[in-house]
Design a protein that fits this description.
Layout: E1 3-10, H1 15-32, E2 38-45, E3 48-54, E4 59-67, E5 71-80, H2 90-105
Antiparallel strand pairs: 1-5, 2-3, 3-4, 4-5
Helix pairs in contact: 1-2
């Protein structure tokens, strides 16, 4: 399963402000992965958002966002659901995640 760490990402906010922004824009993240996410699971444990979902092309995305003052750390695993599929390339995951983070914190 490819692991795609994006560390650190500068958001320039307090931890509480960043958490609020992430919560408000969470649905947009799902659309970045095909728009038809299913089996979505999201839980916050302190300042860490744990999430998982299946994309429209049947890939399982599992990740965590650790939020700190000024920075966040993102770790994502993408795995095909069928054994004969190739895993999603880490570059493709980054192409979806970086624009999502930029719309939250750079707009």
């Amino acid at each position: 399963m490819p692991n795609v760490p994006i560390n650190p990402y500068s958001h320039g906010l307090t931890k509480e402000q960043a958490i609020q922004q992430i919560e408000q824009r969470r649905p947009q993240l799902l659309s970045e992965f095909g728009g038809q996410a299913s089996n979505v699971e999201v839980t916050w444990k302190g300042s860490v958002l744990h999430f998982s979902f299946e994309t429209a092309d049947r890939r399982r995305v599992i990740g965590a966002v650790t939020v700190k003052d000024e920075w966040l750390y993102l770790d994502v695993d993408v795995n095909p659901l069928r054994f004969y599929e190739r895993p999603l390339a880490p570059v493709m995951v980054q192409k979806a995640l970086i624009p999502w983070l930029d719309t939250i914190f750079k707009s």
